[in-house]
Amino acid sequence: MPSKPAAPITIDAVYAAPGYLFRRMQQIAVSIFMEECRAFDLTPVQYAALIAIHTHPGIDATRLSAVIAFDRSTLGSVIERLQAKDYIERKPAPEDKRIKLLHLTKSGAAILREIIPAVERAQARMLEPLKPADRKTLMGLLVQLVDLNNEASRVPLRAEDALEHLGKAG
Amino acid sequence: MPSKPAAPITIDAVYAAPGYLFRRMQQIAVSIFMEECRAFDLTPVQYAALIAIHTHPGIDATRLSAVIAFDRSTLGSVIERLQAKDYIERKPAPEDKRIKLLHLTKSGAAILREIIPAVERAQARMLEPLKPADRKTLMGLLVQLVDLNNEASRVPLRAEDALEHLGKAG
DNA sequence: TGTTGATTGACAGTATACTTACGGTCTAGG
DNA sequence: CCTAGACCGTAAGTATACTGTCAATCAACA
């Protein structure tokens, strides 16, 4: 065999492609999350947003998107839905009329406490088919890969920078 | 410290959660794919659909969704867009009036040949930050995990079953 | 101080993902 | 033969993801 023969155009190449596997795994992960959390009417994205607001009360939408690395435009409607469910509230910032500050409501804080066990079951189930050692290996590599590819993403994670306005980091 | 203390509700737990990492990685993968394939006006999903139709000419939409494990409803609009771009054609099946058979057009076959190098560059870039040995480890574990979680997904992969109607497998 | 440039939130438009439902079609069983 | 159930495509409704644009606002600099 000379070097590489021209790649045959077949579906098998797709099955082994990283992008395809990441997509499949993400869909499986969402499916498991929704199944475990059915009783709570919260999506994975809404859950992450609630956690982030709980960790950083008074954050604004743009910084929130940096803290969880979710798309800024999409986050607008996510926030709307969370507000419609009365899990968060938006208050205008007195010193900057562009900004609206995000806070959990009592309902939001309550559902967050209640949903945690279901979320942890979901996270565990995603990796369950692997041997414990393999789970650690996979997670270690994934953390690395996501971190090293951070800038390749359209919405890079800015866990630290995002908090400067709150005087809690930097 | 007794056993596990109640998990603190902070964003750091999210950063380490499998579901969050899978989502981030999927978004990064799509971003890299779109960047490398910008010249071709094809999304990752559309690319996979084209490859599958190329591998299984005359497949119908429902079986196609099983072959690539994509949602059946979504696939309807994906097919519409591919048809609008003149990359595929749909012909009614004479022996079953419910079914529409999918075939690549000449344009579809051509763009598939042309886009392959860009797709391979994209797939390579996703894993590039890792050491070669780690790439293999990660892919091996991911293949396992996706396969073992197949039934947990809303649209399980049915690579074999889907072909029975074509008399090419089973 | 006054204008420029950056930032924020909002909106429009496209694409994917999933749920539910519905009409047309096929097939199996009675 | 004819109806019951399964199957195919399609559509409506919701949620996420990303692009691009816009007005209001702020900050910085001349």
Order of helices and strands of chain A: HHHEHHEEHH
How much of the sequence of chain A is in beta strands?
5-15%
End-to-end Cα distance of chain A: 57 Å
Number of helices of chain A: 7
Give Rg of chain A in angstroms: 20 Å
The total beta strand count of chain A reads 3
Strand order of the largest sheet of chain A: 1-3-2
Mean pLDDT across the residues of chain A is 90
Which structural class fits the helix and strand makeup of chain A? mainly alpha
Oligomer: homodimer
* Low-pLDDT sequence parts of chain A: 165-170
Q: What characteristic shape of chain A results from the CA principal axes? A: globular
Main sheet: strands, sense, barrel of chain A? 3 strands, antiparallel
What percent of residues of chain A adopt helix (DSSP H or I)? 55-70%
Largest interchain contact: A-B, 65 and 65 residues
